[in-house]
């Protein structure tokens, strides 16, 4: 969030003298921008009466103020915050509220004027994800539903509305102006039609069904035009993942590129249909292998478990330390860890992802979301989200890998239902460590490796967030543990006594 009392700790980049920007943004110049926004909105949002025009001007002024605030900040982080999703609703009293969700964030280094844009070579991908509904039942301010795309440059493109009974939400997610020397690269999330995805799944036939959750259903499919097997997530309109979460997931995965993050191939947003298309992960989720293992199926061995833990941590490290601004995953759990060939892990399902604190901010205040058993206690109690919230969830997943127990299991006795609560007293007695190990490992694990892995897990699930390690330290520790493989020819089989 951009705040007036934020004090930058970095200077402006070369050729980006912020004092010049302030000089350009005199009251007359700002008023011209307001008028420009007004003209743009009037072309797409027919209104009637003086009251309607007055409300439209209030919208334009609020929108211009957001641009001015972002443009006059010297912060490298804040310049990357572009206006991603502009939501305006006409309330029954005739007022229109402007809501720009804080989690709709993407990199943008553009100056505030369209005329300047051609002179500036951005070093970062720019996002345009700006589409929203405008509704009103108020007779004095009649606003029809339209589709408008607005970015920081005030470039507006209209998508013509066909005569359709469904109001269509258009999600146009693009990275553009990625310039590096002479070459220009463009990454675009592919837009698939609903018919294409229906054909890929044989009309969502039951034999293509892979799994189901609070968000909807997942199907395996084959898309001919890209010659690839895919996983298609069809969101339930009444499910837990709404339009905003859908947009966040598309936005995050369009920006992110890492071996331990699932690759988004495209999406579909036709009428009320919301579908996401991912690379297909043939070995399913970690939850399947830990908690839903079919009879006769070989359980994961110790070496594979530690390799999975290290890979998950690396994916989290990319989100926390390499993405700018940083991203807090907020939904790390075994069902969201997908496994590819050779059990290579990838994080998936980014609907709850949130842009992390930047600058002098220590946390992001937000509605508590996540899965019980994985949610950090400090975040659950205060709603203050930090990267340490993800560290706690990672610690829970690591405990699941070690113990084979679920994060929360109502079938267990009351004192054992919550995995962390069950583990806390055992952390204090090294002689009981062997009792914590998954029985399916049948004693085939290195004693030293077990102690080290439990030590990492214990630090990650510390009740006080300040006591938890940063992700880089967790990656280093898990990499070390994973590199010291268990060899049954060398290490004795451990006893659980």
TrEMBL record:
It is found in: Cell membrane; Nucleus. It holds the Pfam family Pkinase. ATP binds at residue 233. InterPro entries: Kinase-like_dom_sf, KIX_dom_sf, MED15_KIX, Prot_kinase_dom, Protein_kinase_ATP_BS, Ser/Thr_kinase_AS. It is a lipid-anchor. Its main location: membrane. One of its GO terms (cellular component) is pollen tube tip. Signal peptide: none annotated. SMART domains: S_TKc. Residues 95-108 have a biased composition (Polar residues). Residues 204-481 form the Protein kinase domain. Keywords: ATP-binding, Cell membrane, Kinase, Lipoprotein, Membrane, Nucleotide-binding, Nucleus, Receptor, Serine/threonine-protein kinase, Transferase. This is Receptor Serine/Threonine kinase.
């Amino acid at each position: 969030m951009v705040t007036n009392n934020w004090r930058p700790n970095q200077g402006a980049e070369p050729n980006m003298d912020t004092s010049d920007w302030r000089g350009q943004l005199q009251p007359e110049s700002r008023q011209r921008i307001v008028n420009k926004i007004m003209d743009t909105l009037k072309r797409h949002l027919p209104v009637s009466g003086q009251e309607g025009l007055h409300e439209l001007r209030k919208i334009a002024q609020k929108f211009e103020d957001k641009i001015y605030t972002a443009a006059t900040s010297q912060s490298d982080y804040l310049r990357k915050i572009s206006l991603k999703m502009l939501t305006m609703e006409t309330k029954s009293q005739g007022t229109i509220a402007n809501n720009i969700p804080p989690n709709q964030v993407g990199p943008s280094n553009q100056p505030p004027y369209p005329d300047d844009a051609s002179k500036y070579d951005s070093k970062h991908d720019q996002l345009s994800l700006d589409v929203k509904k405008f509704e009103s039942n108020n007779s004095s301010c009649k606003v029809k539903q339209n589709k408008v795309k607005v970015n920081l440059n005030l470039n507006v493109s209209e998508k013509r509305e066909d005569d359709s009974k469904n109001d269509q939400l258009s999600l146009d997610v693009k990275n553009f102006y990625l310039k590096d020397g002479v070459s220009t690269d463009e990454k675009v999330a592919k837009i698939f039609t609903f018919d294409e995805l229906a054909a890929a799944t044989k009309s969502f036939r039951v034999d293509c069904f892979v799994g189901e959750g609070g968000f909807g259903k997942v199907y395996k499919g084959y898309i001919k035009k890209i010659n690839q097997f895919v996983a298609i997530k069809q969101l339930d309109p009444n499910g837990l993942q709404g339009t905003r979460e859908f947009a966040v997931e598309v936005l995050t995965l369009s920006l992110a590129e890492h071996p331990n993050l699932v690759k988004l191939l495209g999406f579909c947003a036709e009428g009320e249909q919301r579908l996401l298309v991912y690379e297909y992960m043939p070995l399913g989720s970690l939850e399947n292998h830990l908690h839903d293992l079919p009879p006769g199926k070989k359980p994961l061995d110790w070496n594979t478990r530690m390799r999975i833990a290290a890979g998950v941590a690396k994916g989290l490290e990319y989100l926390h330390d390499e993405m700018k601004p940083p991203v807090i995953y907020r939904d790390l759990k075994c069902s969201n860890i997908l496994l590819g060939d050779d059990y290579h892990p990838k994080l998936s399902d980014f609907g709850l992802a949130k842009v992390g604190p930047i600058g002098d901010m220590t946390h992001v205040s937000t509605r508590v979301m996540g899965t019980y058993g994985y949610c950090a206690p400090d975040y659950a109690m205060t709603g203050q989200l930090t990267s340490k919230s993800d560290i706690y969830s990672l610690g829970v997943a690591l405990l699941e890998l070690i113990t084979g127990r679920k994060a929360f299991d109502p079938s267990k006795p009351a004192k054992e239902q919550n995995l962390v609560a069950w583990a806390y007293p055992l952390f204090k007695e090294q002689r009981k460590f062997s009792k914590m190990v998954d029985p399916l490992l049948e004693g085939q694990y290195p004693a030293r490796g077990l102690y080290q892995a439990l030590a990492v897990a214990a630090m990650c699930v510390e009740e006080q967030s300040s006591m938890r390690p940063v992700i880089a330290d967790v990656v280093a520790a898990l990499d070390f543990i994973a590199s010291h493989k268990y060899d049954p020819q060398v290490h004795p089989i451990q006893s659980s006594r």
